[in-house]
Amino acid sequence: MIEADKKFLELVKKNQKQNTNPVYQYTLEDNPESLTLQDVLESHMTDPIELNSFDSMEKEAGIPFSNEKQRTAIKMALNENRKLVCIQGPPGTGKTFTLTLLLCRLIQQKKQVVVLAPTREALANIRMMTKKTLKRMGIKVHEHALMDTNEYRDVINKSDRALMAAEEVRDLRKAFDNGEITENVLDEMRQSIINRVRNEVGAEVIGNVRVAFATIGASFVDFVMKHKKFDPCLCIIDEAAQVMEAQTWPAVYKMKRIVMAGDPKQLPALVFTDEAKAFGLQNSVMDRILEKKNNFSWIMLENQYRSNAKIATWSNTCFYHNQLKTDVKCHEYSLHTILNPQPKKFRNLFDPLVLIDTSLERDVEKRLETYEHAVFDTNSINKTKQGFSYANLAEAKIAIGHYQRLLKYGVQPSDIAIITPYKGQTSLVTKLMEEFGAETGYTDFVQTTIGTVDSVQGKEYEVVIFTMVRSNPRKTMGFVSELRRLNVVITRAKRHFMFIGNGYLLAESKKDEIRKLYDCFKNAKRRFHPNNAFGEDGNVTDYVSNNFGQDLESFMNYSNDEEMINWCKRFNENGPDYRAKKALAWEKREETRLMKTISKVKYEYKRGSTEQLASELDQLDCSSN
User: So where does this one cross the membrane (predicted)?
Assistant: First the structure.
């Protein structure tokens, strides 16, 4: 697969037709002649003057007023002189809202657009928001104006001509059964009927389409592009930072202009092998454009409308050079304004950004449960890497404990998400949640999101409980060490983000950004003992320390991870404590051997076996030396 992707990219670069594609021209060529787009990057004179009326249109329609950066991005995207426009949308800055306003404007101008995204979820999100915004703005459109693959298929299949065609196929089947036609003739005529219906009904439907929605690489776009009635002026690629470079080219091959929207500082394209990563297949066009953003029609949205400022600070500092401005309303976002009744104990535990530090657990039995445990997918036939994951029992219990207290204080279950990097932990949390429901009769827990980081990009929740899972003496953090994933999970929260994990690993991380995150908790004095999550007291020290013990035996017995266990064994063998114990053990063995020899000599002496006595004494003498 990797080799195929390599060859594909080479073919793309060599393909002469591809040279006319704006993405190729403006990103692959070293010095493209048409890179005069930089001349219009800051020039508002080249953006359509009629867009000055866009602001009043928003006000009249009762749309939440877009900010200056969002309006500028829309104007840039509508400017036909800009062949490629990049919109970077950090968390909570209204990227999808901006794209929705852009689509509404294009629809109002009776233009046609293609919208592409890497996932069905992202596609459904922008499509739903566009429908709502059109309605709020009073823009009436045909029922087929916003079309995706599934809806198009349903329209075709439910049409009168499709029903008539089905009758024709049934007649053909009877003729075949009666021996009047051959199987080859049956297949040819059936396919001919299907193609005829698709073309006839498709032409009528596509004539009313204003926006065609499809996932990257879907054949739907190629199909609608074949119809003369569909001539898109623009291709929008949402979540473009998740689209591998090799995926992008076929999707935009026939497009006149392109708008890419996404955030290279959030989730990248998903690549499974080290080989693929080494080749850079996880990189998107946006990654490369960001490195040379001054050379392109590039803009970053800067007003953050989602998270409390304390939640947004770490992300803003580590990824966006403090360019994000938190909206005034977000400063008021707090759990304390909606909790009813108010908690009487550990009230600070419900502040915007808190850490439950499992390394503070010193109870021997409880400490064991804070360690990570390797688990295997029960649906996997073999215990292969594909079915390999991790779980952490203590963290799962803490998450459920805090969840129950949130419900007690009036937080709605649909406003809470429990997020983790590992499917093994997702399964464990789900199991504990179901047990909680069975014991209490509470059924609304099904409204609560329990999922992995990848499943929540683009979403937001009043409360996010994050369980880190990894906790080992090797200080391996796994997915949590991938900063872009960490950026995504923290910025899903609006009012309250609880990080449950090993503070020792955070504080000792090799990555400066992760140590800064730990400092955010520590400096704000929002670092808590695991007991606190259940309303119980627990000792919180000013320092962090390893809670795995010296010989790592308890961890090795609990881990179930062969690779980690082997590492622990090597660590013990090379550690000073282990060497000292080994030397002491050797001395004891030697002492025991000498005592046995002396006893034997005495026994032989009593028996008068002089030859045997001399031999034993010689051996004893040699051993002593």
Answer: none
Helix axes 483-490, 309-319, angle to 10 degrees: 160
Give per-residue pLDDT as tens, 85-131: 999 999 999 999 999 999 999 999 999 999 999 889 899 999 999 99
Q: For residue 496, which of 393, 402, 422 has the smallest C-alpha distance?
A: 402
Domain coordinates of the chain in residue numbers? 33-54+64-141+210-301, 149-200, 309-550, 589-619
Pick the CATH number of 309-550 from 3.80.10.10, 3.40.50.300, 3.30.360.10, 3.40.50.720: 3.40.50.300
For 184, residues 6+ apart whose C-beta sits below 8 A from its C-beta are none
Q: What is the pLDDT of residue 162?
A: 86
Residue with tokens 């993405």: 23
How confident is the model at residue 223, as a pLDDT? Answer: 80
DSSP 3-state of 389:
strand
The span from the CA of 14 to the CA of 28, in Å, is 11
Give the angle 132-133-135 at the CA atoms, nearest 5°: 65
- Residues in the chain with pLDDT < 50? 1-2, 4-5, 7-9, 11-19, 21, 24, 26-46, 380-384, 625
Helix axes 309-319, 512-523, angle to 10 degrees: 160
CATH class name, domain 33-54+64-141+210-301: alpha beta
- Which residues, at least 6 apart from 450, have a Cβ–Cβ distance to it below 8 Å? 417, 418, 419, 426, 429, 430, 433
155 vs 575: CA distance, rounded Å: 70
Strands 449-452 and 297-300: unpaired
Q: φ and ψ at 382, to 5 degrees?
A: -115, 155
